[in-house]
Amino acid sequence: MKIGLVGLGRMGTAMSQRLREQGFDVAGWDASGERNNALADGGLPIGSNPAALAAGADIIISIITEDHGVRRIFNGPGGFLTTNVKGKLFVEMSTLQPMTARALLPDVERAGARLIESPVLGTIPQVRDGKLVALVGGRDEDLDRARPVLEKLTRRIVHMGPNGSGYAMKLAVNLGLGAYIQALSESLALGSKEGLTLDQMLDVLQEAPYASGWMKSKIGVMKGEKPEMTLDIRTLRKDIMSAVATGALRGVPMPLTAATLTSLSAAVANGYGAGDLAEIPRFLREAMLQNFD
Questions:
Q1: What is the mean pLDDT of residues 130-136?
Q2: Lower Cβ count inside 10 Å, N or C end of the chain?
Q3: Which of 131-145, 194-208, 219-233, 278-292 has the lowest average pLDDT?
Q4: CA–CA distance, 13 with 63 (Å, rounded to integer)
């Protein structure tokens, strides 16, 4: 089975390495020539564009940043659907708006191919260990065809329903994560203003009823240690924007999510966008609260 993988950022690169280790014939492509060159030097075959990659693969995985980029790699110049893709399966693993999947599906099927989405829970360590959780939207038979690949990346595959439902579930998860981080940030800011130390607060918050595995894994980062980058603030902001847009389309009021988006946007505007999510509490304490001193 030949696999084409478009999007060689942190997650895409880790996935390409994992799949090659598991014996798959993998080729890749990224919009960044620098990334392509670096991975080609490491032995990964690189296609000239998405169309060339799709032409030489049986299953084509894409994992990139945002909806417009995914639409471009399918329908733009040199995109997947500009070549003969009859009989091929696309596994779209980005975090997108559900309406994007529903818009792409008829284009892909008119070309004689099939499409599922499979955004995942987990980051780089889970990719390396094959312990992601896949949230799949699409037809049963198409998921069955993708299973031999997805099973090498995941510990669990959850079929959420038709195309769009996998993206909906991933946005719901990231919406909760964003709100949790905002609440944690405000907790630490309040305690700081009352004279509590960061060490004191993080020690106690690990015992709180809402303590999470994510928080415990990020204690070091919140204390100032350099993170192994997984998900950055700018990307979470994009995901929360997608959740707000989806909610608006469906008539779902989202006051908490809108407030979280405001805070994330402030962090990006103040130069924190490339930082790890666990750096949001520091931004709130250091960059915002100084205005109230």
A1: 98
A2: C
A3: 278-292
A4: 10
In angstroms and rounded to an integer, the radius of gyration of the C-alpha atoms of the chain is 20
3-state secondary structure of 271: coil
Helix (H, G, I), strand (E, B) or coil at 283: helix
- Could you write out the DSSP letters of every residue in 102-127? HHHHHHHHHTT-EEEE--EE--HHHH
Both 203 and 185 in one domain: the answer is yes
Query: pLDDT tens digits for 86-99?
Result: 999 999 999 999 99
**Element of type H or E holding 136:** strand 132-137
Q: Which two tokens stand for residue 220?
A: 């070091």
- Tell whether the model's pLDDT for residue 229 goes beyond 80: no
What is the spatial distance between Cα 14 and Cα 123, in angstroms, rounded to a whole number? Answer: 9
19/1 Cα distance (integer angstroms): 11
Same domain, yes or no: 188 and 241? yes
**What is 173-191 written as a DSSP string?**
HHHHHHHHHHHHHHHHHHH
Q: Note down the domain range covering 180.
A: 168-292
In single-letter form, the type of residue at position 232 comes to: D
Query: Quick one: what percent of the chain has pLDDT higher than 70?
Result: 98
Residues 157 and 196 in one domain: no
Query: Nearest CA to 133 among 116, 155, 148?
Result: 155
Residue length of the chain: 293
Q: Which residues contact 142 (CB under 8 A, 6 or more apart)?
A: 89, 114, 115, 116
Q: What is the mean pLDDT of residues 267-279?
A: 94
Mapping DSSP to helix (H, G, I), strand (E, B) and coil, where does residue 34 land?
helix
Count of CB atoms situated within 10 Å of the CB of 2: 13
